[in-house]
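[agent] plan:
  1. take the single chain provided in the ticket
  2. run structure prediction with default settings
  3. attach structure tokens to the ticket
  4. add a short note for the reviewer (M.T.)
[agent] executing step 1
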Amino acid sequence: MESFSRGWSFLQQAWQMALKDKDLIKPSIYALIVGTIVSVIGAIPIIIVAFFIGDAGRIGQFILAVMGAFLVFLNFIVSYVFSGMTAYLIYEYLTQGNGRMSTAWSIVRRDFFDLVTLAAVSTGVNLLKNAANRNRNRRGGIAAGLISAAAGLLEVLWTEAAFLILPAMVIEDMNLSNAAKRVAQIVKNNLLLIGVSTVGVRAVTGLIGFVLGAGGAVLGFGIGYGIITILGTGALGLIVGIGLGILIFLTFTMVASVINTYTSTAYHTCLYLWARNVEVAQTAGQPIRVAAPAPLAAVLG
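[agent] step 2 finished; step 3 output follows
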């Protein structure tokens, strides 16, 4: 319960930063828009190919799998580019009092290749998890279940690592290898603290996502059903009622997505900056306790 309370305090302070500097939240909104466009456009050729060669056996399945993996890869690139912008904007805000979109954009252009390599590894982890799940569903058994669980754990750990690797890339201009080594060292020295604080932030964002998703579904259904009741079950009533209901639900889920993306990126950026400062102080032999950035102080206690 205390972990959840700290996570809630962090969310409040992180969003206070966003309200003071609106640029901090812009990349999360752009990521949602661009990611949706990429997914829709990318799904079109996959659907077309599936229609024509869906019965082509393993060759057809292989082609569709490659196309699907490439779409996942593109979505990871979009996510990391805009999350990288958010991380650098927060860094600028905390160190200079103002985050500038122009600077953040130039930083992700500089580090684009590094972000692509991070996306490639994340795609590989995603494919490994999906393959393990398919193997479990197809074969069953204890061994397949254990492999699937291990792959799922790997994805969770890698997702957490990637959130910390991003700040190392954009703030310190590191490639994937060096950033991963730096993050591994930071996590090793602060494992318990990182684990406890992460649970609190994840719990809060997860609860908010659930509440908004469920609320959007209930509200969308209620309004949609009401419109159909008023206009009747003809074409007009069904189109307007169902269309508006879906629109309301999607709006709520998009808000939840933006909240989760920004909050998670803000948390990991603040965590990285604090851990880096602690590391520097320890190296210099400074006995003074290093203060965490304001939003992070709430979750570290």
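[agent] step 4 note for reviewer: The mean pLDDT is 84.
[agent] ticket updated
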